[in-house]
Amino acid sequence: MLSIRINVLKAAADETRLRVLALLASGERTVKDLTDILGQSQPRISRHLKLLADAGLIERAPEGAWVYYRLSDDETIRAIVHPMLAGLPENDLTIRRDREQLERVRQRNQDAASAYFAEHADRWDSLRNLHVPDTDIESAILDAAGPGPFHALLDIGTGTGRMLELFADRVRRATGIDMSPAMLAIARSNLERSGHSHIHVRLADANILPVVRESFDLVIIHQVLHYLDDPARAIAQAAQTLSPGGRLLIVDFAPHKIEELRQTHAHRRLGFSHRQIRQWLGEAGLSPETPTDLPPTDDSGQALTVSLFPANASPRSGRIVSRSEN
Fold first, then answer.
1. DSSP three-state, residue 133
2. CA distance 252 to 235
């Protein structure tokens, strides 16, 4: 413990590195963000980031051509860093200037995300019109997940990060993954605007989850399975991330005949039956609970029923063997 503390203090004993830590305390940032905020060259900032990463103070998450940096999740490191940052004087001119520049960078990123969303808004709006209001679905999701509080949440296929925002007050930490950098940009913008620094998003495939096994007590797969070639594999992968006694919640559409969704929204599956999802949950080693259906008010046949499928992991560890490992 003493050696860890000494290494941390040595790494932080530099004005620029301390400024970097203060910025990362409010959310993850790229090298470009940090160079714009701090007004220093990319090589110099990268050098400081390497020293902080080598000391275990920060973590790096490659995302295509970009790399995002954030404070370490290690409890020992955080117990040292947070009091250090809390002691920084609020009226310090350099810290105040950094925060002002951070707000400018946040606004720039938010504007870019908003532009993308506006360009594709018709896609999301047309789909929402086919099912019950989002508020009804989100209320049912909160009820199905349980009151918490949860230690760790994994949101698979996070999209705009709405599920992460919904559970922000019920979780100690949360991670969202998605395969779309554009959607992750929107999620980051939304989470920054909401001030949720304990939530992070990552570029990743639902079939190859880059997380530690048995490390989440709540996992959500919200409106994702109908896009996948192999939903069963995604469920099996999700099950492996659940801690003993953890909870998985799948939210998707009941079987329907709206063929247009294949063409317009790239849906590969036109909904899932209770029997099919329960079978996949059982194969993944989980215990399904009774599903909940939210039928549409429109009975024209051109509307969607949203189904919620909760399931629990065994209290015992070592319960699951992925299909991909068989």
1. coil
2. 13
The amino acid sitting at 116 is Y
Q: Return the pLDDT at 4.
A: 64
Task: Output b/e per residue, 114-146; b: 16+ Cβ within 10 A.
Answer: eeebeeeeeeeeebeebbbeeeebbebbeebbe
pLDDT, tens digit (0-9, with 9 covering 90-100), for 152-186: 999 999 988 999 999 999 999 999 999 888 888 88
Contact call for residues 265 and 243 (beta carbons, < 8 A): no
Angle, helices 93-119/15-24, rounded to nearest 10 degrees: 40
Q: Which CATH architecture has domain 122-325?
A: 3-Layer(aba) Sandwich (3.40)
Two tokens, residue 129: 């019109």
CA dihedral 61, 64, 66, 68 (to 10 degrees): -20
Q: What is the mean pLDDT of the chain?
A: 86
Q: Which two tokens stand for residue 246?
A: 């953890």
DSSP bridge partners of 156: 177, 221
- The secondary structure of residue 208, as a DSSP letter, is B
| Contact predicate 291/272, CB 8 Å | no
Distance, CA of 8 to CA of 84 (rounded, Å): 11
Residues in contact with 3: Cβ distance below 8 Å, sequence separation at least 6, in sequence order: none
Cα of first residue to Cα of last residue in the chain, in angstroms, is 41
CATH architecture of the domain covering 2-112? Orthogonal Bundle (1.10)
| Chain position carrying tokens 């969607």 | 304
Tens digits of residue pLDDT in 286-324: 999 999 999 987 766 678 999 999 999 998 644 443 333
pLDDT digits (tens, 9 = 90+) for 23-60: 998 878 889 999 999 999 999 999 999 999 998 899 88
Task: Name the phi and psi angles at 146, rounded to 5.
Answer: 100, 165
8 A C-beta contact, residue 189 and residue 158: no
- Provide the whole-model pTM: 0.73
Q: What residue ranges do the domains of the chain occupy?
A: 2-112, 122-325
